[in-house]
Amino acid sequence: MKIGILGSGNVGKALAKGLAVSGHRVVVSSREPDHPKHASWKKESGSSVGMVTFDEAARFGETMILALPWNGLKDVLESIDPACLKNKTVIDVSNAVSFDGGPRLLHNETSAGEIVQQLLPDSSIVKTLNIVSDQIMVHPHFSEGSPVMFISGNNLESKEQVRTLLKDLGWSTIIDLGDISRSRLQESIMLACVISEMQLPSPSAAFALLTRG
Ligand SMILES: NC(=O)c1ccc[n+]([C@@H]2O[C@H](COP(=O)([O-])OP(=O)(O)OC[C@H]3O[C@@H](n4cnc5c(N)ncnc54)[C@H](OP(=O)(O)O)[C@@H]3O)[C@@H](O)[C@H]2O)c1
């Protein structure tokens, strides 16, 4: 599958690498794709992942991933030709969170996932992967067992597509929470995970679902 990633930070690059290894054709995108700060990444990823503009990524991707900081996301989406995102599955990894004075969600009456769906009414937003750090997003191995990944979204076909991509990234326990309004739960779970990590010796944690034999 051709996957366009909006963003070239830790999340965008980790997912690009993981999906390319699984055989997908992937591009990441940046405000300045030719900036020298991307030189080592380009060298490391070779021809397996392209580095392009946001608009080029939106034209390329059959499925899109939003991996942008919350304060820049709306402007980037508004800068892209809407026809390029129409009828596409758009995976939303973002968290609308502030760390000033302790971690807290920026929106209590809605969620980043719902706001993104409103910004892109003709796309199918699927919220996922926001509850773990970029270092855990690909092949999440823990000696204690397999962590859980949640998905939510309004379109069942898009959620099946995302489930397949998550499996390609090494996720085996994937739970569908419901429509996009359930991204409120996922964003709260992210906050609980961040607060938990602050109290743990290991900085990389994930939640698991335990079931009795
Ligand atoms: N990092 C994690 O562990 C993690 C985990 C779960 C969810 N998330 C969420 O995933 C999203 C991406 O996280 P990240 O850590 O990869 O983000 P990031 O490194 O802060 O930003 C990603 C890229 O976006 C571009 N950017 C920065 N400010 C921008 C702006 N104002 N407008 C447009 N582009 C801008 C930058 O690339 P250029 O300068 O090259 O344009 C940057 O490399 C965030 O919403 C975050 O909350 C992150």
TrEMBL record:
What InterPro entries does the entry give? NAD(P)-bd_dom_sf, P5C_Rdtase_cat_N, STEAP_metalloreductase
Gene3D superfamilies assigned: NAD(P)-binding Rossmann-like Domain
Provide the Pyrroline-5-carboxylate reductase catalytic N-terminal domain boundaries. Answer: 2-95
Q: Does the keyword Oxidoreductase apply?
A: yes
Q: Which UniProt keywords apply?
A: Oxidoreductase
Family annotation (SUPFAM superfamilies):
NAD(P)-binding Rossmann-fold domains (SSF51735)
The protein in question is named Pyrroline-5-carboxylate reductase catalytic N-terminal domain-containing protein
Matching entries from Pfam families are given as: F420_oxidored (PF03807)
Entry's Gene Ontology molecular function annotations: oxidoreductase activity
